[in-house]
Amino acid sequence: MNSNGLIQHIELYVSDLNKTNLFWRLLLVNYLGYTVHQKWDNGISYILNGIYIVFVQSNKKTPIYNRTHVGLNHLAFSVDSKSKLDEIRLVLINANYTELYSDKYPHASGLQTDALYFEDPDRIKVEVVCQ
Questions:
Q1: 3-state class (DSSP) for residue 124
Q2: Which DSSP string corresponds to 24-77?
Q3: Residue 65, domain member (yes or no)
Q4: Helix, strand, or coil here: 127?
Q5: pLDDT in tens for each of the 131 residues of the chain?
Q6: What is the separation, in whole angstroms, between the first and last Cα of the chain?
Q7: Residue 99, Cβ neighbours under 10 Å: how many?
């Protein structure tokens, strides 16, 4: 397989690593097949198929992240079944995370696609799409 141009990793600075880790471990490890890749005092990374996501504790709390400003809008992940999407939704709701567009679930992105949207603790939008 040619790896030219593939994303190797994504690194995000976060306001509270402990809160961030609770959300992302729940989603990435429990439902999307990632494993912990590296862990150190101020960060953690999760890996799947050689691609990893890094979360690092920031010492700068301002400006507060806003996905509608210039910069990252959201991260999207895929799952292979609608039942997995429903399961993730229920778990995140029960863990008191903020669901976006709940009134349009599962078709917030259109009638042809089943998708779920949540915010992580820093309000980064996370999309899970049923392929």
A1: coil
A2: HIIIIIHHH--EEEEEETTEEEEEETTEEEEEEE-S---SPP-TTSSS--EEEE
A3: no
A4: strand
A5: 677 888 999 999 999 999 999 999 999 999 999 999 999 999 999 999 999 999 999 999 888 889 999 899 999 999 999 999 999 999 999 999 999 999 999 999 888 899 999 999 999 999 999 97
A6: 22
A7: 15
Total domains present in the chain:
1
Global model pTM greater than 0.70: yes
Q: Which residues of 50-76 are buried (b: 16+ CB within 10 A; e: fewer)?
A: eebbbbbbeeeeeeebeeeeeeeeeee
83 inside domain = yes
Residue 4 falls inside a structural domain? no
What CATH number is given to the structural domain containing 21? 3.10.180.10
Residue range(s) defining the domain that contains residue 124? 9-60+73-130
Rounded CA gap, 16 and 21, in Å? 9
**Would 42 be classed as within a structural domain?**
yes
